[in-house]
From TrEMBL, chains A, B:
<dbReference type="InterPro" id="IPR020578">
    <property type="entry name" value="Aminotrans_V_PyrdxlP_BS"/>
</dbReference>
<keyword id="KW-0663">Pyridoxal phosphate</keyword>
<feature type="binding site">
    <location>
        <position position="336"/>
    </location>
    <ligand>
        <name>substrate</name>
    </ligand>
</feature>
<dbReference type="InterPro" id="IPR024169">
    <property type="entry name" value="SP_NH2Trfase/AEP_transaminase"/>
</dbReference>
<keyword id="KW-0032">Aminotransferase</keyword>
<protein>
    <submittedName>
        <fullName>Alanine--glyoxylate aminotransferase family protein</fullName>
    </submittedName>
</protein>
<feature type="domain" description="Aminotransferase class V">
    <location>
        <begin position="24"/>
        <end position="328"/>
    </location>
</feature>
<dbReference type="GO" id="GO:0019265">
    <property type="term" value="P:glycine biosynthetic process, by transamination of glyoxylate"/>
</dbReference>
<dbReference type="InterPro" id="IPR000192">
    <property type="entry name" value="Aminotrans_V_dom"/>
</dbReference>
<dbReference type="InterPro" id="IPR015422">
    <property type="entry name" value="PyrdxlP-dep_Trfase_small"/>
</dbReference>
<keyword id="KW-0808">Transferase</keyword>
<dbReference type="InterPro" id="IPR015424">
    <property type="entry name" value="PyrdxlP-dep_Trfase"/>
</dbReference>
<comment type="similarity">
    <text>Belongs to the class-V pyridoxal-phosphate-dependent aminotransferase family.</text>
</comment>
<dbReference type="GO" id="GO:0008453">
    <property type="term" value="F:alanine-glyoxylate transaminase activity"/>
</dbReference>
<dbReference type="Pfam" id="PF00266">
    <property type="entry name" value="Aminotran_5"/>
</dbReference>
<dbReference type="GO" id="GO:0004760">
    <property type="term" value="F:L-serine-pyruvate transaminase activity"/>
</dbReference>
<dbReference type="InterPro" id="IPR015421">
    <property type="entry name" value="PyrdxlP-dep_Trfase_major"/>
</dbReference>
């Protein structure tokens, strides 16, 4: 096999564009100097449209999980009651974080692969008026579900005073998001998915309502204290030494978003999702999620008549193509294709054509080219952009 | 379109593997120090099997054309008579180099797209016993022809004392080559094709017979004097400051060749050629060359019922896929797909699937997926390696 050839199509980390790689190897700078200040000045306004907010988006050096924990410790405290909607392993993580802070968690467990139902949330909130915050996952990476956050937000605000905290790690930057218009109170994402960067940065924005809560929240926190980040960001600075090379990369990512146009970025992700799903249907590979619940950034397939791990092994060994397996109880049951960030429709064609060969290799009698043709047909129906 | 996304599938320069890119940004070293000596020591033995020779392969900092000129000025001189076999624009270049040194050129012009016929060469050599050297092109980049160098070599040595000088720029490293066994006297290649490097290095090896001629050849030359390179190489050195970052990259390329195994490298190129040709046939795209004359590194297609340039425009604008056009009288008549170096069968699947869409875009009624299926079938018949 061609050495040093890798096709990374897991739902994050995602591949890094070459110009972003180059940006990240710029000579190091001091984090308190004029260069760092200018870097943050450039980045700061450009993050807002991606979140769909007029609020500042703070940048914290940490994994996505640090962003989720930031959302928790800044908005609620030990003893508070919260509702955590669990549609997969990342909803579960929100619950675990809350529990480790002795926050009382009411879980709404949704079958993995399904989207949350806002009406169920409404009932729970009306029954439990003491709930201070609702935690939800926008794109559930473990299942490829895109939850209906706009509808959820309307329902939460209609039926309670709770804050709505949203984990957008695996979709922000790939899915049109209107934080302010929809009424999301805290929105979190990470750098290693649709943001086309290595892991190491997490992004958090808060609504005015949320800031009022944050100001007064008594939960102890130091590194993850949002106020520190906000107060420094106003001065184009950071409270702690940031991962500067990732900020160099972020500056370039934001230029790439501008060059393509955010609306085109979102259309591209939508097209890639539709191509992947059409190919799966043509190849009779059962999709884990319904069309309406599907995320533009990741697609999960639950094979009915072969082992997902057998297929993954062929993809990796013969084509150096990495797709993800399942998590927790879906381990071995599904495989997940990431189509986010630095990924083009041309890459979906490649993944699908490889998939067809790999299915043959494991003994499936698929018509060669049929998945590819289905993906091509989807593409051709779209306006070229 | 996804910004900063390029699919470079011209017949060189070819894409650079990431580990080679990383190798090339190592800190600069002095060219007369111990590090440079060690670098050359590592590289030197590993070049020989790629050429199929026990002779040293000298590395000259220059384009492939500098390598061709090296071959000329070291073996013949003004007034000498040579035979140049012209099967395309790079054969033509050999003739131009010779003519600029007042070497008397007898051209054997072969219709572009066809391979040379050793029997024709035999006749010419027997009629012209004063011919000192025969210049031939192994892979003619401009047409995708792989000339029968082994058969040519036998014929040249049977029918004359002329040296056989071979331009292997666009195939050495992608095609099994046995310089010593076949009796090639001078073999030249460049860094930017199957060697997976940027342009800037050219490689030249000479047979013992050739070295005897080189020692005594009276043609003036300084930078391109092979003796200088050989005499320095014996001491793990170079006569002039070499392109050290390219040598860093070369060291890594040779490691990648070792990791894959040279025989696997050649099999991969053969597979990619067959996949490309099968797809072209399935899509009713006329191949410029016959199966027997086809090169494993580049495939030329001569469309019968559409403009090659219209297709190239769609490939580039909509998919950032670069394929080459035609040269000289084939300009606008053909397009050429490079499948050499850092290119895997998975990339051929991608190129073909894109091609199908582009053909639709320019109004051709091709069955979607049919070219892909043909390429997949070729792949599946091969042993996995």
């Amino acid at each position: 096999m061609l050495a040093d050839h890798q096709l990374l199509r897991i739902p994050g980390p995602s591949p890094i564009p070459p110009s972003v790689q180059r940006a990240m190897v710029q000579p190091m700078i001091g984090h308190r100097g004029q260069e760092a200040k200018q870097l943050i000045q450039t980045i700061r306004p450009k993050l807002k449209p991606i979140f769909g907010t007029d609020q500042d988006v703070v940048v914290i050096t940490g994994s996505g999980t640090a962003g989720l924990e930031t959302a928790v410790v800044n908005t609620v405290k030990a003893g508070d009651e919260v509702l955590v909607i669990v549609t997969g392993s990342f909803g579960d993580r929100f619950a675990k974080i809350c529990e480790s802070y002795q926050i009382r968690v009411r879980r709404l467990d949704v079958e993995w692969g399904n989207a949350l139902d806002p009406n169920q949330v409404k009932v729970l909130l009306e029954e439990n008026p003491t709930i201070k915050a609702v935690f939800a996952t926008f794109c559930e990476t473990s299942t490829g579900v895109l939850n209906p956050i706009q509808a959820l937000s309307e329902m939460v605000h209609q039926s309670s005073d709770a804050l709505l905290v949203v984990d957008g790690v695996s979709c922000i930057g790939g899915v049109d998001t209107k934080m302010d218009e929809w009424g999301i109170d805290i929105l979190v994402t990470g750098s290693q998915k649709a943001f086309m960067l290595p892991a190491g940065l997490t992004f958090v924005a808060a609504s005015e309502r949320a800031w009022n809560v944050i100001e007064n929240n008594e939960q102890s926190r130091f590194y993850l204290d949002l106020k520190k980040y906000r107060d420094n960001l106003i001065k184009d600075s950071t409270p702690f030494t940031p991962a500067l090379s990732l900020l160099f990369g972020l500056e370039q990512v934001l230029q790439l978003f501008e060059a393509e146009g955010l609306s085109n970025v979102y259309k591209r992700h939508q097209t890639m999702m539709e191509m992947t799903r059409a190919a799966a249907n043509a190849l009779k590979l059962p999709l884990l999620t319904s069309d309406v619940a599907a995320s533009p950034t990741v697609t999960a397939i639950r094979p009915a008549d072969f082992q997902a791990e057998d297929l993954r092994k062929v993809l990796k060994q013969e084509f150096a193509l990495s797709v993800a397996g399942g998590q927790q109880h879906l381990k071995g049951e599904i495989f997940r294709i990431g189509h986010m960030g630095y990924c083009a429709p041309a890459d979906i064609l490649q993944i699908v054509a490889i998939l067809e060969i790999a299915l043959k290799r494991i003994g499936k009698n698929v018509p060669l080219g049929s998945g590819t043709a289905a993906a091509q047909e989807v593409y051709l129906k779209k306006e070229a952009y």
